[in-house]
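<goal> How does this chain fold?
<sample>
Here is the protein in question

***
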Amino acid sequence: MLERIQKITSIGLFADTKPSAFPFRKLSLIYADNGRGKSTLAALLKSCGDNQPQLLLNRRTIGSTTPQYAELLFSQGNRSAFTAGQWSAQYHGTHVYDLNFVESSVYSGGEINATHRKRLLSFALGEKAVSAMKAFSDATDAAAEKTRSRKAAEDKLTPHRGKATPAAYMRMKKIAGAAEEIATTEQQLRQADNLASIRTRKGYDSFARFRPDLAGLLAILNTTHQELSSQAEDAVRAHVDHIESADFKSWAHNGLNFIKNETCPFCTQSLNGIALIDYYRECFDEAFSRLTGQVATLDDLKGRVMGTLNLPLLQSRIEQAEAITDLWAGELDLKVELPNLEQIKARYEELDALLTQLVVQKKISPLTALDKMLADRCTALLDAINDPLDGFNVSVTIANARIAEFREQLGQLPVAQLRARLNELNERQKRFSTEVIALIESCEQAKAAEKLALDEKEARREALSAIMRNTLGQYEQTINKLLINFGARFSIREISYNYSGGGEPKSEYAIELRGEKLALSGEASSFRTSLSEGDKRTLAFAFFIAVVVSDPGLQNKIVVIDDPMCSLDKHRRTQTLSVLKKVYDGSRQLIVMAHDMYFLKSLLDEFEKKKESQNVACMRIVHAQGDHSHFATLDVDRECESAYYSNHRLVSGYLAGENYVAREVATAIRPLLEGYLHRRYPGHVAPGLLFGEIVRKIAGAGSDSPLCHAATLVDELNEINSYAGKFHHDTNAAAGAENVEPGELLAYSRRALSVIYGGRVA
């Protein structure tokens, strides 16, 4: 049992508190406003009970640099301290119901998911299945490790096994005489490779003939003046026949710049009025201009003509032909007429020189026609270059035909089959090498170890399943009984477990509402919309209580409940009290934390009826400097008493010698009498009437009013009011400065109680 919390440092709002002066009892009630530290205290006890340091590490006091520390004192002097992020000792056996339990083990965000189911199952199984769950988890981890080892061993085979699966590779049989067959197959492949080389061996390439535009060049060289004059005369006649227009005359005169003084440059005859001569002269000048333009392009045209023969490429083709002839020499006697490159070069150079000469002459004398003998010589030189090329191309065509015929006559070998067989033989030889045999032995050992680990995992799984079947079966009835008692409209069905998704098992159950099963998760979750928040918390509380009350070791357990939300309405409040009494009876200790003082009052009243007040401790968590928290005493009765009883306690206690503040007692006299009169004459003294108004109403009451029975008290009440009114601001603006004389206060306190107890003047 937890007896004291000695100290808490840097955990949540408990920056530095020492609550050792507040002992815990078998029933310990702790009151705190929301956000004051209840959940932190629940986490502290769960962290120690389950040895989960992270629950506290996540709650370091904001802004604190002091190391976290907590010290708990349990029965028989057992002590556990949280320091350096670890507990010095674990207190086994703590059940904690708080918001964390609800959101981690039952539902969150309006749905119940796989994580909730796993955690709820772990909680529901209790200590009885802890070792079985751990054994299964350990066996699962061990099997996973063996599987990783087996895969790692198989991965080492990957470079050796090719496309074969590991299992097929390890089953391979050794081939007898593999070495001899490998040698034979390699020899066959060499022969096949020779044939393949012949089939792909290159033939001859022909060479294009020398086809320059020699005719076009010679045509320009052969163009004369007379021809141009004749063309011009034809043009003049055509113009005269078809164009009879004064406008054409102005166009024709553009060429008159060559005529001086209107006199013919040749015969000095006057040219006035002779239009035909003007047209003729214009046309003649244009033709001559064209001729000179063509002559100007002869150098470029001659270069293009001679550039069509690529002598370096021809030399390369001749060399290639010689090499191909040598390459085929072992199989074929090929005759190829190789051109005489030197003779071709000589004819080419002669043609180039002759054309250069002719171009120069034409540029000197554009109107002189080409000598026919020279033109014929150019043509002869071109033929002298092309003739050996034609002979070469003809012989190449014949040789290539012989090569094609020879290839067709070659025999066929199954090269693909030979290579496949050679690969198979080599792979099989490698399979039985010393290195690979060692790797396969390692694989087989890893596979055997994996099988043993998987068998062990399955055995542990079955042992855990047996415990779960026996344990979970008892919960459905208990939970549904609790839900009925809490007035829930739904019930639990089909509580079981499954291993879906692999790894740890998770709980499986259905929630039924009006005969329909609710969808527990997903966007279409009817659990989200069909149950109120109170119903959902009732479900969580029912799960928790069902496990707790079914725990065979409950008599040694501490049960911590932070805000049992089942107390939202009167019926569930009553049932929650009943459940907590049952938990108290069966457990070693019950710690209840709440922000509802009246709920704690109801629980305390139940234990006063049981005459076990000596086993109850009450304390509260209050605000401390720096917006932190610490512990303080709690008087539940006083916190829950009405204003009337509070005033009565002050006045009667003062008379009895209690050490109350005199001014507070003096202030309490008037509202005490008001409360008395309200209770003595219910329905006849309206709420909100001031004391003086009440007295005047009594004084004016007729005999038909019950108030007439207090008529004898009017003078006494007025006198007491005259005294007590001095201490209220509504009747005395200086009430705060009014002196309180103890003897006078005692007298008026006695007179007020005499009115209350005796209904008369003392």
